[in-house]
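Students often ask why we bother encoding 3D structure as a string. The short answer is that it lets us treat folding as translation between two languages. Here is a chain of 178 residues written in the first language.
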Amino acid sequence: MDNTLILNTILQYKPKESHILLDIGGNDGTHSIFYSKNLPNCSILTFEPNQMLYSIINSTIDINRLTNIQTFNKAVGHKNQDEMIRLDDLNLHGCDYMKIITGGYESLVLHGAMDLIHTYKPVIVFEHSKKHLNPTITSQFGMYSWAIETPFEILKEEGYLIQPLSECYYLAKHIESD
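And here it is in the second language, the structure alphabet:
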């Protein structure tokens, strides 16, 4: 994946209102650090369930003395449970931009953020590949794979237009956005 493509997307759609950006699937923090340095007036919430990667993100934040990133060592999904949280339950006061790269769990992230998406209509960059939810993954959550829509279906239903950024990365922008 060309990180530059995704990173530059946020600069094209600079936050206008709440200045809240969500980095879901923070990995090593590359995106959050970029957002922090290039958009210092924004608040970045970064979610990374892998403890090792979460530690790397926090170390990088400390080394760079960044103060506008808040990290969560949690997965983001469709319900609250031990290691997972729903974005709708965070009671955010806005959201301008979401980056969702969660290795096939993107639909579950979106299902747990429907109020947020409906209310704030953020620009969303997401991954979609053949790793899309399969019967093994969905059975872990007590769901049937046929009951889970793709990110395309979910976002189109909410009034989003979707364009490819690359082979498996997409930009979704609400039709009411400028």
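Translate back mentally: The two ends are 28 Å apart (CA to CA). Keep this in mind for the problem set.
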